[in-house]
Amino acid sequence: LRENLPPGTLVTTLRAVDADTGIFGELQYAVLGQPAGEPGMVEGRDAFAVNSSSGELRSRLTFDYERAKAFQLLVRATDAGNASATVTVRVLVTGEDEYDPIFLSPSFSFEVPEGARKGQSIGRVLATDEDEGADGVVLYSLTKPSPYFAVNQTTGTIYLRVDSQPQAGGGRAKREPREMSLEVQARSPLPASRSATAQVTVDVTHTSFGLAPD
């Protein structure tokens, strides 16, 4: 059952079979209480109602995946002679992508140090997502590919794709400050995931990135 559906949503129709004909073949259904038998299961007697004659099982609440993910209840079918059978019903709540990822900062600033090598990390972006399950997993990507930088999709670490080349002229002469801009996106691995972006400014003063060969 998907989270956030209104109370009264049909979960399933339970049906027991009684070989008697006539009144003794007519069954009445009822939800019984029982301790949840497995870790993570919530006792579901108060969360669901069963139609006594049709066996339709409906929700009595709107469920929140972040609070409860599974319910267990016992349903009994009884005939007019008071013979009965019971069945265990487990209802799993599935999540929806309710929350946008949120970057710890709307923008990040990093620097390419002099002499940095291919694969070297220059910084890390980080985002959180209040969803649980797969919807709460955060993956990172650059919105536009860069010849100089890449981002680790699971850690958010931004690293160099190439060696940092010293500027022509060398030495420690005063250099004009230069910056490059990247945009990083955070989203879950699921289709139609909510997403967020953050701006990354990289100081490339100490490398020849982006400069035409002299």
TrEMBL record:
Keywords: Calcium, Cell adhesion, Glycoprotein, Membrane, Transmembrane, Transmembrane helix. One of its GO terms (molecular function) is calcium ion binding. Residues 1-103, 104-213 form the Cadherin domain. Coiled coil: none annotated. The keyword Membrane applies. GO terms for cellular component: membrane. Pfam families: Cadherin. It is found in: Membrane. Residues 164-198 are annotated as: Disordered. InterPro entries: Cadherin-like_dom, Cadherin-like_sf. It comes from the Eukaryota. GO terms for biological process: homophilic cell adhesion via plasma membrane adhesion molecules. This is PCD16 protein. It comes from Crypturellus undulatus.
